[in-house]
C-alpha cells in the first residue's frame, strides 16, 4: 500500500513469524535487502519505499488494532522498530477493514490505532460507502500524483514531554537547536546555522559531505539529551533544517532520515515541526511565518507542502505541551496477494531423499 508519501508491505501479524529475529530475517528477504537497488524484492531502493506495517487486533480497550512499524534498511541487513511512521499509518485503517479486523461503517469508518513502537495512539477516519473502503477521491497531497480519498488522522496528546531535554533551546556541537517529540523525536535546526540555505535539493544536501559530518555529530549528541540513549544504529532522532517560507507556508524544511534527505516530510516529523514552531523561544522564531489565527500550519518541503492542525497547551508545571494534532493524508491499495521471498541463504540440512526438490508453492501474505 501507499500510505501518504511512503510505500510499504502491510502484513497481518499472524502471517509472519512471532520471533522478532526470524520475522526480521524474512522481511529482509521479502524487501530485497541488503542491496542498494533491492532488485530481488519489493523494496524501492529508498528508505521511503522500504517499509513494513505489521497489524493485529488490539487487546488495549483504547484501540481497535495494533500497528508495528518496521524500517527495513536498503543497503544493510537491518530492520528497526525504533520509530513510528505517520505516512504508513495512513493505510492502517483501510488495511484493517480490508482484512476484517474492523467492521466498516455504511458511510465512513473510524479506526483507533495503537502505535506499538511508542505506545502512542491515533484515530484514522476514511470513507467506506456501502461498507467498503473507497480509495478514490478528490484529496491531493504534495509528493503524490493525482487525488484520492482523504484519511483524516488525529493524534491525542502523548504522554512524553514535548521538550524531551527540558529546555526550549539547547546548544549541540556549537549549534543552537530545539529538540521536540510530538510523536517523533526531532531536532530543529536553522539551516543558516549550518552554512546552507535550506532550499537546496535533497541530492545536493546529501552530497555535501561536510554537512553530513556535522549532522551526524549533532544527532549522536542529541540522542542521550533526548533520553534516547546511543542512537548510532537508529534512525531517530530526525533532524530538520528550517528556513523562511518561499510559497506562502509557515516554514521551509529539509529533513534527514538519518543521512538521506527526505523528498518530502514525514507526518509525525511535520507534527514535531509545527509544535516546535508554536513553542515560544524555539529556534523557529527567527525563520517561521506562523498564521495570525487558526491551528493550521503549512510545512513546506522539497516536493510541496503538508498542512498540520496543531495547537499547544501547558503542563501543570507550565511547560508547553501538545494539545491537538491532526492531518489529512491519503492511502491506496496497490496490490493484494502473495510475495515469494528470496531463498534463505543460511546453511540447511541436506535433503533426505535423492528426489529433485522444487520451490514450495506457498509464499508470504
UniProtKB/TrEMBL annotation:
UniProt keyword annotation of Translocase present: no
SUPFAM superfamilies linked to this entry: Diaminopimelate epimerase-like
Report if keyword Isomerase is assigned.
yes
Pfam families annotated for this entry? PrpF
* EC number annotated for this UniProt entry: 5.3.2.8
Q: Which organism is it from?
A: Streptomyces vulcanius
Low complexity bias locations: 351-365
The entry's protein name is 4-oxalomesaconate tautomerase
Its family remark reads: Belongs to the PrpF family.
Q: Which GO terms describe its molecular function?
A: isomerase activity
Q: Which residue intervals make up region (Disordered)?
A: 334-365
Listed A to Z, the keywords are: Isomerase
